Every structure is written in structure tokens, then in C-alpha cells.
From TrEMBL, chain A:
Domain of life: Bacteria
Name this protein carries in UniProt: Carboxypeptidase regulatory-like domain-containing protein
UniProtKB/TrEMBL annotation, chain B:
Family membership: Belongs to the sigma-70 factor family. ECF subfamily.
GO biological process: DNA-templated transcription initiation
Key words, A-Z: DNA-binding, Sigma factor, Transcription, Transcription regulation
Region of interest (Disordered), ranges: 1-20
Species this protein is from: Ornithinimicrobium cerasi
Name used for this protein in its record: RNA polymerase sigma factor, sigma-70 family
Amino acid sequence: MTGTETWLEPFDGTDATILRELREVVARLDPCPADLTERISFALTVQALQAEVAELTSQPELVSRGFADDPAEATTVTFSTESVSIMVTVTPEGRDRARLDGWLTCGAASVGLDLDGGGTRTVEADEDGRFVLSDLPRGGARLTVHPPGGRPVITPQFTL
Amino acid sequence: MVTEPPRAGGGSGTSPPSLASQAGEVFAAYVDGRHEAIGELVELLTPLLWQVARAHGCAQHAAEDVVQETWLRLVDHLEDIRDPRAVLGWLVVAVKRESWRNCKLARRNTYDETGTVDPGDVEDGPETLAILTERQGALWAAVGELPERCRALLRVVAFVDRPDYDQVSAALGMPRGSIGPTRGRCLDKLRRALVADPRWVDA
């Protein structure tokens, strides 16, 4: 071979180019899954709140497709844990807003809606467990319900 | 405000802050009570941690689990990290260890009869190589010829900035100076293979 200790030479522009191109190759061949950061953030939120995760128990279309079929139609979806069920009806409001009518089987509770685009809207459910949030931006969202004295309940993401 | 060490060979004036110092600032904000900062830290470092898990033998699904578990452990171990700038290294070490624990064993039992098949490696099938240019294909093939420790080091280091090399090498269990300020043995091997490859040189 060459006999010179080329590995002791200073890291130079060619080395930087090799690593930059390696990064491009790896990013193309084996990229981090696009939704991984979102799932991790969700897991961290659940852990931080010591929350129960509600499962979707009806109308999975809302979660995956939104209003693909008929944009004018209201869609209802239900999430449940052992202790509480959350029914959510989403209705389009004008061209690009939405209204959410919710009902909780646990009665009065604080409700937070985390919006995908950032920000949280909060509302108090009345003693029958009903609440309304209107003028919401379209997009992904998830609800966190804080029943008085109970563990918070957090829903998977659904589409407004 | 963190002062950056000068970047040799860059030459283009202002360089972005290193990943370790960016992560350190966001982490410090989280520890100080800005809860949403953890989401920013996840966005910033998860693509790197994915590469760490994949470079240490985790199949795709296992790599997702390993990276997620590591983030959950971080928020339970905040007191372990005294210098916020060390959070990058802490996460890389944790993902590497978790990968060894969860993925190496599966790999040995399932795949590693010859030591050549690695579920953390990318399939070099025709579809895979078709998305690469000839020059990129030459690079990827040369990386595949390196010893495993070198493959892991270069694959991970490629996702950070020069000032981070020491912290990342140390986290990967490589000696300080494995890469930067000198070229180091791993990158030297790769570079020598490439300069002998007409697909790399002529492209």
C-alpha cells in the first residue's frame, strides 16, 4: 500500500463531501419513518399525564380519511376506556373550519383539544358531559379529558 | 449563548449551531418547565437516533420501539444529565445499548449464521439500488465493505455536525478522535476505496 499514515491527515473538504453524500444515501435508503416523531410525542404525553389511552370504538373512517366522501356531512366517532366513553361529532363550518360537539359519559370534566397545527382549545363539559368547540381549523386533533378525581383520558388523533 | 469551535474546511462564514448545542438549549428549556420543548427535542434528534438503532442491528419495527422506549426513559432520568449539552450523547448511548439488548440477540438467533446478514442493513436489492446514482451506489457498496464498527460510526456521524463528532464517537464506544480532527481510520478506509473506484471518481 502507500506506506503513509493517511488516516492521520486532517479531516478535509473531501472527507466532508463523503459524509454529506453518505447522509443523502442513507436518508434515501433508510429514512426515519415520517410518523415516528408524532407517535413518540404522543407516548410522552400519555406518560407525562399518566393518562389512559381511549380506543376508537366506532367510525374508523374519520381517523383515516376525514371527509373524503361528503365534505358537508357530519361525522360521529366514539372513543372508550373502561371508565369513560367520548362521543365526538364533527361538522364542517363554512369552507375551512369545523365544529366539534362532544359528549362524555363521565359528566362534568375539563376538556382540552390539541390541534395538529399547534395550540390547545379548552372547554368545560357540563354536568351532562356535553361540550362544544367551534371555529376550529381543519386538520388533525386529539382530545384530553380530565374527569374530576380520575386519571386523564387521551384519544388517538382524529381529523377535523 | 454557546460558543462554537471553529469548523475547519467549511469556509462559508456562519455555520449553524452544532446538534449537541441545539439539543442542549431545547433540553435545558424542557428541564426548566417548558413542557412542549420535549416535542422539539424529539423532532430534532429522532432521525439521528433512528440511524443509531438501525446501525446497531435493529430491524425497522424494533428500531421504532427502541427509539420510543429511549425517549420515555429520558424523561424519567432527567437528573442523570447534568450538562444539557450531553443530552445528545446520553440518547445515543441509550439507543445503542437498547439496540444491543433487543436486536443483537434476535439477530444472532435468526440471521447471523455467517455474520454477513444484518437486519439493520438495507436490502441491496435492484429496487434499492435503482434510486441511487452510480456514484451513490459506489459509496454505499464501499461502506458495506467496512468493518461493522466503522459502518456504524460513519452512518451515524453523517447525521451530525463536525463539533459533535467527539461526543457521538464516545457515545458509540469508539475512541476519542476516531473521526476529527484527523480523518481517522474508518473514513480513511472508505476514502481509499472510493478514490480507487472509477464510478466515484468520474461521476
